[in-house]
Amino acid sequence: MSTPSLRAIHLTVNGEPQRCAVEPRRSLADCLRHDLGFTGTHVGCEHGVCGCCTVLFNREPVRSCLLFAVQADGGEVITVEGLARDGKLHVIQQAFWEEFALQCGFCTPGFLLTALAFLRDRPDPTAEEVRLALSGNLCRCTGYHTIVRAVLSAAKRLREHGGSEVPGPHSAS
Amino acid sequence: MSDHAARDAKAGTASAGQWIGRPVHRVEDPRVLAGHGTYVDDMHLPRMAEVAFVRSPHAHARLLRVDVERARRHPGVVAVLTGAEAARHAAPVRGILLHYQGMKTGPQHPLALDRVRYVGEPVVVVAAASRAAAEDACELVEAEYEPLPPLLDADSALRPDAVRLHDELEDNCILHAAFRGGDPETAFREADHIFTDTFSFARHTGVTIEPRSLLAQFEPATRSLTVWVSTQVPHMMQAVLAAILGLEEHRIRVIAPDVGGSFGIKIHVYQDDIAACLVAVLTGRPVKWVADRRESFLADIHAREQRVAVELATKADGTILGLKAEVVAPVGAWSAYPRSSVVEGSQTVRLLPGPFRVRNYAYTLDVVAQNKVITSQYRAVGHPIAAACMDGIVDLAAAGLGLDPAEIRLRNLLRRHEFPYTSITGNLYDSGSYAECLEALMERSGYAALRQEQAHLRERGIYRGIGLCCFIEITGPGAQFYGMGGAPISGQDGTTVRLEPTGKVTALIGVTDQGQGTHTTMAQIVAEHLGVDVRDVKVISGDTAATPYGGGTWASRGSVVGAGAAILASQAVRAKIVAVAGHLLEANPDDLEIRGGRVSVKGSPARSLSLGDVARTVHYESHKLPKGMEPSLEATNHYTNPIAWTFTNGAHLASVEVDVETGEVRLLKYAVVEDCGRIINPAIVDGQVRGGVAQGIGGALYEECVYDGAGQLLTASLMDYLMPSTAEVPDILVDHLETPSPFTVGGFKGVGEAGTAGAPGAVMNGVNDALRPLGARITRQPMTPERILRALRAAGK
Question: DSSP letters of B569-600?
């Protein structure tokens, strides 16, 4: 069995241009984590169920474990590291903190990005709608109760700021 | 449904101090939210190799031949080890706890030698420049097996003609235990009624979202090993790695960085973990090993597979006279090392009487080996089964006697004036609010209104059920679980508290964190006892080179044993602070108070020093101290529970609706009233309860590790193994009573497992309550739609 050849790819991650050389079978998740050093995106299953690996790719939430890095060539990726600015947490991160919406934190980046994309499309959701929108992200620690509360709280604050452009409004210190 | 608990939590508990009892926001969160968590797989070391495993495709087979030559030659491969090679360098382990009389199990090697005993057992380890290259090389390994008949349940494994899983043992029974307390024969003879049922619980597993991971680095010159590992128990890992790999314990450093959930899964010693560490030792290169999700399902410990036959003897008014139980617990091919696989079944039988007044009890327990992966301790260990069976049979009795389920419980639950109470199995229930929690739960959940609604909807063919479960929970054990059985597991824990020259505080703790906010709660304890702001306390944990020797986190011990040590160390540092300040202020140390980071004379706030002033004097100007006074503002104290363990209690209510056409169960409402003693952080406590409830719901309705007739695991992915999501878990109302332990420092008890203990019983009782008018009953978990429909068909519906 011969070693697969490497392909050069260029992509933007959190607004900054990145380049690397990857095997065709390299997932975007592994590329972000190990080739580019963005370890905030986590891998929980590698079969697209747990949602930990969710990033925004060309503004849409995707399972980066199911995307090959070569498929992201030329694209724009937002990871959890792109949310806070100058040390200030994004409104959604602040809401998760205030509502105790994380425990071990492993699933949290996936929830943050899934929720942000959802709120961009549905700025004033009911709790039931939030539950359905997040049903593709698994958490084993929290029982979800406080995650739902945090997303509803963030929705309210984002509406008050007049939008949820990502990366968007950051909490006042 | 409004969440009174959340509003109350924001305000702090009734007994709140400045920090203890308050919902302080977690100090762990900002870093992790920003994506800067450091989990093992985030780490890289120069020249690091990654491992993959060839695993047995057979549940039971002789391993005749392994040929790794082609794999060794594959580009990028650093090392390959077979079982025979590993056995030359790593000692086998045996999961025996000496205080379980007569238990027996075979030796376990890191890689299979001449026999494989479960699908997924590691056979060969391959280390290569990347995980992908290692997996490629694994495909080049040739292994020849001679399949043997697999034993896949207890009955087959106990037959006299069954093949023995370990040649040196006379049979496949790991432990047989029997107990008789009081006079159960007379109790059953004189009873007005006897109720009988058999409950079975399927194998399921923890499914930590971060899989097991480790990174091992060996320095040959000093024979020192550093292991970063996603574990609950760094000091235990230090001890077992030394024993297995033949290294000196004090030259092993174990570090638990951020851990992505554990629930007991990462407290055990795994064959593949040892094999990975061995590769590091033999090659001198750093070795990373991360289980993928399929390997997690195949090789993580499973739990909860038990069959429990229960008999309850009662008077006509529902008073419990006697209890009998036969528990069969098929575990895996070995008893786990070092915590054994007999604790879960033993907890079931010893805790079955639960919070009820039971004076006549007999049980038998059979823990049996089979050709599946090992089972061992997973969150709430045995308690969910004990509570589900006892509350299940009590509900059956209620129905048979025409009593409301709450009423029969209140008749038999122990009351405050009966504490301390020694159970029929010898457990000291030190304190609790057993009946009081149920009464509070009925009020908070609107029990009466739920019953009315249920009756009303039944007339319209809508089947709702209300399920109750009252449980007790062992927390904060000392050495009685493991240490006294010979396991290298600490029953004590230690904390170092240190005042830095700036007047800020550092606390080094032996207990660990896997998401439960240990750093925050320990900072609250230290801040409260030292009189500083909680944000000025930095906590360090999970490093055997930095923290005092301790047991890590398990059996909900952190807020008992860890907090106890933190209190003692904080008090010791406080005493030193006021001794120094008293000298500098020319005041009696007893007249001094510490508040907001300043030490002042009570009543004369102008006579004060900052903690920084005190610290700088000790560190830089120690000539100003009295002769003979040690120039130190640091203290290390250790603590263990003065009694075997302390009990918490609670009551759960599940309101469910069963669709009798599809068998689907919907959870409408869930409520818990929990008493975990004095609460440190109510928001963190509620999070532990809710997370535990979600896991219990998973076990009750969705989760099962399914093996086929050949012993193949069919549920080895998240597509097949169903985990509850936001769509399945309802809002969970949590409320608390606080009955401090009269024995522990601080009065704290543990809480990490309480949610899991009560949920399976509450959900099962709710489903059966819904099905009762149709004459159907289900006592097998998970209660899948198929099983519910079968129960309905069996009742002729």
Answer: HHHHHHHHHHHHHHHHHTS-GGGEEEETTEEE
